[in-house]
Each structure stands twice: as structure tokens, then as C-alpha cells.
Amino acid sequence: MTLVPRKRLDLSFADLVAAAGYALRPGGGGDEAAVERAFSTEHAAVACLSVRTGFDLVLSALALQPGDEIVVSAFNIPHMAELIRRHGAVPVPIDLDPTTMSPDWGQVERAIGPRTRAVLIAHLFGARLDLSAGVALARDRGLVFIEDAAQAFDTGRWRGHEGAHVTLFSFGSIKTATALGSAVAVVRDGALATQLRARNAALPRRSRASFLVKVGRYALLLGLTRPGVYGAAAALADATGVDFDAAINAATRSFRGVDLLDAIRARPSRAQLALLRRRLSSPESSGARRRAAVGRRVAAALPPGLWLVGGAHADHCHWLFPVSSAAPDLLVARLRDAGFDATRGGTTLSPVRQGDARAPQVEAVFRSIVYLPVDSHLSDQGVAALLDTLAQLSPPEAERAPLHLHGPRASGGSQTW
Fold it and tell me: pTM for this one?
């Protein structure tokens, strides 16, 4: 059968061949300084192994004491909250408006206490939030403002909010302009930049051999995500009792089954840095513009009963395409029957929880979310077929488990029910 993959890697086989060449050539590869100069000319930058590594470097520089607090937007990868706890501090989750996935800055202000040291806010799904109010609040309270832009890079010249102390960008395996890993932290405080660079330079470097193994794995994955091959793999998994959804999710996740701090406290191999430098030097090779155009088209035509989570932004690169559905499992099943590999867990994003503290709107979104296979590889015919499948959902079935969220409906979507 033919199955449209949930997401395809944003790189070519030519990029993978180049990456293998960097790994195989003795003495070949790049260095942090070349990547940092290419990425940011206005502020200091620190090239590191991952956003987790960059965040760990910042937390180390803050010299947190047990019981210190970090105010965080309540939807992110679990490792970000885990890192805060591993440094002895406490994450304080802030609920988000489902239509924007932006925090209420009044709630952020009320959450700040005498032990608060920093604020961490994430841009989600490719939308770019206006962080001006949060940046001003952090400045007035003497807090470090950390901008998690792991999902917001779009190959343009935007490098984060000018008032943020640190902005973290990711080039992980399923990110825009992927380098199969690595990250860049843009740092707008000179003393903090010096600390982060020194701490990063003291970390051990990953080997060329380990990067070559990764290149081979992703070459196989890139071949797998051709629709015909992908469909055959899904059919084989079904026939053998393998959870195909879980297998695909696991194939692109980093730092699984290892101690988190041991895994992230390293520097990327020189071969990986050379690949990142290559990706940054040719932004037009990325499918970001096409993906954004496809995302806008689908968002504008969503049928009643579905709306785009975090879609109320004009500035959106649609890195992921999450919709809210009252019957998410039914939607996934219907789409897969029609040849579209939607998923409820295409990323590791989940609510941040601390003790009994919960973010009700984030929890509701988490229960209702479905990631649609909308990316730069979806043809015009594929877009039409996807929209036709969505339109055929039976309203009575879709309304069996109504979801009540606060705030206006998302831009380009349909009214919530």
C-alpha cells in the first residue's frame, strides 16, 4: 500500500553523502567557531551537541541552589523539566492558550517568587510567539530569559528575540535544515557567553565513527520514507505485530535509554559540525518555504470539528501540523486507512507537571492532539486528498467526546465545539 509519511527528513541524499565524506576523511570536518560565525554575526553564539546541552550549560552557569525555581511554558519535551530537576531546581509550569500556545504573561508574573531564577518559554510547532512582554518582565525582575526556539528555525535570518538572554536553536534529525543533531545557542550577555563557551569547550568530543553510524541510519530512514516503501514497511509491521507508530517515533528520538547528563555532556563531532555549516550555507536547499505554503493551504481549509493548535499566528513555518480533534484515535485510524500516516505522538512533546501542579488547557490539548502528515513533500494532489479525507469525517462521530477550550478559535481553522 502507499502511505504518506508523517514527516520526512529535511535533507537530501547529497547531504548524506557529504556528511559521510566529512566523517571518512581524516582531519576533515569543521569546528564550532565556523558554525558560530555562520549562524550569528550580531551576537555571540555557541555551537553545541543539542538544545538539551545548551540548556544544561545555561543551568550550570546559573549555579542553581536546591529549591530555586524556573518558570516554564507547560508544553515541551520532558527532558527540559528533567534537566531543571537534575540541577536541583523546580520547574513551575505555566498554562498556554491553545489557539496560540502562548502563555498569559499575567500568570507568568504571578508565578514569579523569591526563588525564581529564570523564565523558559518555547515556540511550538513552527509558530513564532511575541515574547516582548515576557522579556520585559524578566528584565524588570532581574531574571534570565531563555527562549526555546528548537521548533522555530525556518532558514531565514531571524535569530530570536533581541531581549532574550539566550535563544536555543535545534538542528536535530527531524528539524528544519537538519544536521542530524547539534544546536546553536545565541547569547546576548557577554559574561554568560564566555561562561557557556568555556564550559562547552571542556566537554569531550563525539567521534567521527559515531557520526558515520548515524549517517548510515538516517540514509536508511530517508529511503524508508518514500511513500511506497513506507507503506510496505507499515504493512509488514502490522503483519508481524510490530507497533509501527512507536517504531517510527523511536527511530528519530535522541538520548533514549541512557543517562541524560552523560549523553548530552559532549560536543558534536567535527564531521557533524561540517554538515551543519553546509546546511547553513545553502538555506534554499531546505523545504521550509514549501512546507509553510502547504501548511497555510491546509490550515485555511480544515473542516468543521478540527482546528490548528497554535495556529493563530501570521508568522508560522508549520514545522509540525497539530490539529485538535474530539475523536483523535478515530481520526488517526481514518487517515491511515486513506493512506496518510497521522500520529498522536510524532514528537516527545508532553505537558510539564510538577507535583499536583497541572496546566488544564495544555492537558486538554494533549488529550486531543493529532499530528497530520503536512510537509514540503506533500503534493498538490496529496493536499487535496488529505482535505477530502478530513471532510468525510462524520460530524456525529467526531462530536462524541467534545473538547472545551478557552480562547478564540485558531486562525484558519474551524470553530471549536
Answer: 0.92
List beta partners, residue 144. Answer: 118
pLDDT tens figures, 400-412 = 433 444 433 333 3
- Judge contact between 103 and 122, C-beta under 8 A: no
104-133, pLDDT tens digit by residue? 999 999 999 999 999 999 999 999 999 999
- Give the chain's domains with CATH numbers: 14-201 (3.40.640.10), 286-398 (3.90.1150.10)
H-assigned helices in 158-226? 190-201, 208-224
How many other β-carbons are positioned within 10 Å of the β-carbon of residue 237?
A: 16
Longest dimension (CA), the chain: 63
Q: Which three cell numbers stand for residue 402?
A: 467534545
Cell numbers found for residue 326: 474530539
C-alpha cell at 102: 502562548
The rounded distance, in Å, linking the Cα atoms of 393 and 396 is 9
8 Å CB contact between 144 and 58: yes
Question: Using an 8 Å Cβ cutoff, are 304 and 414 in contact?
Answer: yes
- The CA distance from 105 to 90, in Å, is 19
List the one residue out of 193, 175, 183 whose CA is nearest residue 272.
183
Contact 7, 373 (CB under 8 A): yes
| HSE-CB of 378 using CA atoms within 13 angstroms | 30
- CA-closest candidate to residue 202, choices 80, 41, 61: 61
